[in-house]
Amino acid sequence: MTTDLDLKTTLSTRRIVGLWRMITGYRAIYAGAFLCIGLAAVCQTVFYFLLRYFTDDVLGVEAMRGQLAWVAAGFIGLALAQGLFTFMGGRWATMTSENVIRRLRDYLYDHVQRLTFAYHDKTPTGDLIQRSTSDVETMRRFLGEESVGLGRILSLFVVNFVGLLTLNPRLALISIVVVPLIVAVSIYFFRMIGKRYEIFQEEEAKLSTTLQENLSGVRVVRAFARQDFERQKFEVTNRGRYDSGRKLLVLHAVYWPSTDIIVGIQLIIGYAVGATMAINGEITVGTFLAYMGMLTWIMWPIRNVGRLIVQMSMALVSFDRVAEIIRVDREPLDAGTHRPDGPPHGEIVFDDVRFAYAEEMAVLNGITFRAEPGQVIALVGPTGSGKTSLVNLLPRFYEYQGSIRLDGVELRDYPRRYLREQIGFVLQEPFLFSRTIKENIMYGVHREVTDEDVYRAAQAAAVHDVILSFPDGYDTVVGERGVTLSGGQKQRVTLARTLLKDPAILILDDATSSVDTETEAAIREALQELIPGRTTFIIAHRVQTVMSADLILVLEKGRIVQSGTHAELLEQEGIYRRIYELQSQIEDELQQDLAAAHAAAGSNGHYRTPERQSADTAALD
Ligand code: DUT
Ligand code: MG
Questions:
Q1: Does the model's pTM come out above 0.70?
Q2: Domain-embedded: residue 536
């Protein structure tokens, strides 16, 4: 049952309250588990009472021989009942913890993908992974196993202590003289271990981050032959984790023997006093036997209380670490007052827009322009000038200052979901999932599409033939059996994905940067057909790509320094003309070189006859 439990408020409360609320929906069964554990403890103690009865009243008394069978049946019955209760208790607790944690994991996964870009920009992936795996696992162990242990210990202690009180109050009091000492020692370690464990988890998160970065950057590492550097970096992090792990273990190592000694002293005192009383005839032999048994079962919980306290402190630390993520506000997808029924016309107006990733470091400043519906807007400018940042504002990936209006309505008034459904984005860094190419292309579409639609999108992106050349065609799984795509192929698959979505507003962030000029021309032609009717933003470095745009914006250091059509911009002094001239020049030179190479190849072919060749060689000598 996945109730609509609001985990955010749940985990934002104090820890114990939060844990209690987390088990909503499973409380009855969880309480049942603890009831069983308590009953198992009762069986344990009743066992000793039966033992006393057997020793004192049955064993030495001729007339009671008839009772033997009953006593035997009693022992067996108690053992069976105890086993059954323990089993049920464990089962129900596990059931609770598995379900509660499954619910938490689902929630976390969903939550993490709904956090803002700004949050992900500053949070290492390894840290998020550590919290959603290791910390959640610690919580699961606590709910399912350790809390059961805690219940067992508490009930064994209480039941046996009550048993001892009815047996002999003096003995009962003697058997708990060391409890305050043990509690004091345990609380001390509880604090210390909690702190250490937090550090340990942080170290481990660093280790995951390092590993994850190394794996995703595996090509860079190799290309620069930086394996040794990476190894050393890892060794440092790993050493940090080792050190914090060692300190944690030392604490454990000191804790155990010290409580063992205290418990040992207690047992000696208890046995000595009990034996003396039995010898003096103050208690019967049966009482002494029962006392010894119960004393062991009082000491066992006391001895273990520390372990559980330690586990509890780790669980609470993990609880806090998970709660920290959950408390982060999600990006509201559906908040917004303006909800049109259909797609927008696509008129976009920027009015003095300012934007910064971090306070005080403006990346965009005073951006003002207007895009009519269906127009093609091109953004050009040096790297780092803010082109990607500008288009990132349209789907509201980030918050901005100033005003951006779509069809005359402020972007902030639209639900983000609407904007993202209407805007098709080819991101600068193409990313494909480890699924089939077809699934990758169909990723963003919400309507029914046929295979033909998929093929048409791929054709427009000039990648259809490439896909067909793979052994499994469109069913080729990306990243499996060594089938990876080249940068340009990936880029074109992501382009097909966006074209298939058929959005009202299209954003192409350097969508053809890794594609050769010829292929790019083919894509451009296909786009010309697709573009009419939709407002399109094109970011590109090649002037050819942007030449035909209705409006070209030239960005530099976050400002629009020039704007107009290709013809208008060419008439002005400025970056645009410089870029254009430079690129034309390069292209001309390239043409000349090609022609020259061609000519040379032709003439060589003509007069590289054997005689001539030997003459060449001779001349060289
Ligand atoms: N920037 C950040 N944080 C980010 C992304 C970028 O601080 O998450 C900075 C880097 C740069 C500026 O913002 O100084 C503009 O970056 P943007 O990516 O918008 O530049 P671009 O025009 O798209 O450059 P390129 O042509 O290299 O893609
Ligand atoms: Mg960019």
A1: yes
A2: no
